[in-house]
Task: inverse folding
């Protein structure tokens, strides 16, 4: 999934920095004795990667579509029967499309006669998405599939439909003409199964609250860097994941997202949100990803983290995320500096 802020292409930098800190601080425990928490999980790639290294994982995201994908990445293991999964995927791929909520609100054919002729998906893909999404709810209710299979299949749908969305990567706007990728017929592709420890847990909460109820060893924070809320940028994935047919409004067909707004996107609240999180964290090692164009300054982050223990920072020159170039944002350069801020926290026993 092409996700704003995804650490897919930075995972080596991230992991080598984290392992360097652990080694330099004489950490002797093995991964299978430690808990790694990824509280802004997004695509789940970071928690998933540490799961494969043997850590117990706590993962979380405020967005439900992210929770679904991460639930599969983090909690599913060898419990899924590969042959059966492939059969289920085949059955879903062979369904006829239906004219449901996504078709009726987010495709050109489905919005005939409406105030806005939205074109987020081709008519074919919107109908196919509706058919698969509704079938998944029916299958779960009729116990044709279990919860683990449900998250695997729904995560696969979110990933596959996102791949042929008619957008410049986020759902803040759709393109006037169907781009070539949006014209291709959606095929449901199975999400990979990541193998690791079975005692992993995924939450769908505000990290600012969840931090008070968990403890572990390594805390990884990857909040939004700027004022663009994920809830509005990915509103259609949220609706597909929830299948709750919400009241929508405006040209882009936005759902209400008040309860999912992030403090990390607010210039006036972001520093206190970070400080509260660091202060409340019952974790020895804390890592924060951020870049040089975020709403918090590097010095501001440093001054907060330094108060709680030993601090240092790693940097990497990085190619900007593609969608940033397509929007009305004029950047002087195509590169940004990516930081990993590290804190070895002085914990009271
Ligand atoms: C930079 S992205 C994380 C990307 C992720 N590390 C990856 O590699 O895919 C930030 C994520 O934080 C989530 N988020 C924002 N505010 C949050 C909050 N207060 N609590 C939990 N999740 C939040 C967003 O939904 C988004 O998925």
Result:
């Amino acid at each position: 999934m092409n996700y704003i802020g995804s650490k897919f292409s930075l995972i080596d930098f991230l992991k080598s920095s984290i392992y360097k800190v652990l080694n330099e601080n004489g950490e002797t425990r093995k991964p299978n004795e430690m808990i790694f928490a990824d509280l802004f999980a997004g695509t789940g790639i970071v928690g998933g990667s540490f799961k494969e290294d043997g850590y117990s994982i706590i993962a979380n995201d405020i967005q439900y579509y992210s929770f679904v994908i991460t639930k599969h990445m983090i909690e599913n293991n060898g419990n899924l029967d590969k042959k059966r999964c492939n059969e289920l995927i085949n059955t879903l791929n062979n369904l006829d499309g239906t004219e449901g909520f996504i078709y009726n609100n987010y495709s050109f054919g489905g919005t005939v006669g409406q105030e806005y002729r939205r074109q987020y998906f081709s008519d074919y893909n919107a109908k196919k998405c509706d058919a698969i999404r509704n079938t998944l709810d029916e299958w779960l209710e009729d116990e044709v599939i279990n919860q683990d299979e449900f998250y695997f299949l729904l995560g696969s749908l979110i990933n596959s439909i996102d791949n042929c969305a008619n957008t410049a990567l986020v759902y803040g706007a759709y393109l006037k003409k169907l781009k070539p990728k949006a014209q291709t017929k959606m095929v449901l592709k199975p999400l990979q199964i990541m193998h690791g420890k079975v005692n992993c847990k995924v939450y769908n909460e505000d990290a600012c609250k969840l931090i008070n109820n968990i403890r572990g060893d390594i805390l990884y924070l990857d909040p939004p860097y700027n004022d663009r809320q994920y809830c509005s940028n990915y509103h259609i994935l949220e609706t597909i994941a929830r299948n709750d047919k919400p009241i929508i409004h405006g040209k882009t067909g936005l759902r209400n997202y008040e309860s999912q707004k992030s403090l990390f996107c607010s210039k006036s609240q972001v520093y206190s949100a970070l400080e509260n999180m660091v202060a409340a964290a019952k974790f020895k090692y804390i890592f924060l990803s951020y870049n040089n164009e975020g709403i918090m300054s590097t010095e501001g982050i440093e001054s907060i983290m330094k108060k709680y223990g030993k601090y240092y920072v790693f940097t990497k020159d990085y190619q900007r995320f593609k969608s940033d170039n397509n929007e009305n944002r004029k950047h002087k350069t195509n590169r940004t500096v990516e930081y990993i801020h590290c804190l070895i926290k002085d914990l009271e026993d």
